[in-house]
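Hey L., structure's done. Input below.
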Amino acid sequence: MSSPLIITAAVVGAETMREHTPHVPYTPQEIAQECQRCFEAGAAMVHVHGRHDDGAPTQDRETFQKILSEIRRRCGVLVQFSTGGAVGMDVEERIEALDLQPDMATLTTGSVNFGDNVFLNSLSTIRTIADRLRTLDITPEIEIFDTGMIDTALRLLDEGLLTEPLHFDFVLGVAGGMGASRRNLQFLVDSIPDGSTWSVAGMGRHELPLASAAIEMGGHVRVGLEDNIYLKKGVLARGSYELVEEVARRATNVGRNLATSEQARQILGISR
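Output:
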């Protein structure tokens, strides 16, 4: 409990639409406003995707520039860009905005069935993204949907495309990926190098139970409408900020402090 808890708010994603919940933001202004709410609720970092005004996913540089500027104008939260984008995007499309220098960006180290689709990440694609992050001195968050992705991350470490300490995000409960259980989470935590940091993102109804597990295990937590739209069974969260508030409450109840953005920067080794 001595390490402050980093809460990351995944406020938009590429799959959650207004037909699922009216509270998902689309425009850069809406996304930034939600990021500010999450920051005020206790999030040290936000994870962002781009959307067109109609909600269609985009990774274009102009959209991310607007999102980043709007967030930084409003608050001091750390900003993490997705390089996953949406299923079907090519690698250059997924990483074209990285020169905007976000604080972090994701790096998924393998392919995974994603419902009826496939989130495709060949080794060539993974190396391309890792090399771009290294060149731009952007700290990666290694996204893990299954155990073999850890082995690929360690291969990149041996190749010099990643450097220690590493930070992992375990994404559990995707249909086609590793199941969302505390046993699986413990196995993944036991499989990463000593000195690494980690967070967990549980999908759907698994989000808050796995958040509680991570709080108790000394890890960190990602929550938000990208991964789960419900505060409790049958009750839509009015925004990602309500999910952040719930995680903050659970942390407080067991005596774990929340990390500020500056503390998160130090814990995660973000140099810029």
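The radius of gyration is 17 Å. The chain has one domain: 7-264.

-- N.
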